[in-house]
Amino acid sequence: MKSRNKNINVPNALSLSRIILIVPFVYFFLNDRIVPAAVCLVLSGISDMLDGMIARKFNQFTELGQMLDPLADKLTQGAVAICLAIEQPILIPLLAIFILKELLMLFAASFLVLKKKKRPSGSKWYGKVATILFYVSFVVIVALKGFFHIENLAVTVTLLSVTAAFMIYAFVQYFKIFLELMHSNDPKDNIDLKADIKARKTREDK
User: What's residue 17's pLDDT?
Assistant: First the structure.
């Protein structure tokens, strides 16, 4: 009798829903339908908070979830940043910081897995705070422009500066973890993708 696939759970479904919400958000935003675009973004932000809470409360952590959660964050943030940068060129510096940070983290994670056979770190609180600030900043900027037709440069610059600063802080903290994993001799930090996949299939076939 096959055992239930542990990857099929609520936290992973919420992470997947965030990826799916990117499509309607981009469509609505680029067609100047600010209200439904903002609703998509708010729903995405709520699901981002809920998936971690549910995973911790019901112990539903999976390796798939550890990959889906940050992937959903990165894809959502990238889509939002690009859309807003198209509308407001002042956001381009933050977009550049975001792209550089994510590319470096993607390279670091790939290097750990493929070269060093190490397990990348999951999301940390400072990464989540950076994500929340990202959502808050862009929702405020969009709301001011879309609902109230206000473009306050001081508010925009302040929000973007705080968000960019925390993004850089999160990157520095993740880089420290990367260095620790690089030199770690702890067996729990090791990963063997082929062996893990084979073992998982064996468990599921029982």
Answer: 92
At 171-190, the pLDDT tens digits run: 899 889 888 888 878 777 67
pLDDT tens per residue across span 59-98: 777 767 777 887 888 888 788 878 877 877 777 777 787 7
Exposure string for 32-71, b = 16+ CB within 10 A, e = fewer: eeeeebbebbeebbebbeebbebbeeeebebebbbebbbe
pTM over 0.85: no
What confidence score (pLDDT) does residue 23 get? 95
**3-state class percentages of the chain: helix first, strand second, coil last, to nearest 5:** 80, 0, 20
- Domains annotated for the chain, with CATH where assigned, are 10-205 (1.20.120.1760)
Question: How many helices and strands (H and E) does the chain possess?
Answer: 7, 0
DSSP one-letter string for 11-34 = HHHHHHHHHHHHHHHHHHHHTT-H
**CA dist 151 → 61, 68, 105, 146, 148 (Å):** 42, 35, 33, 10, 9
Instruction: For residue 93, give both structure tokens.
Output: 């510096």
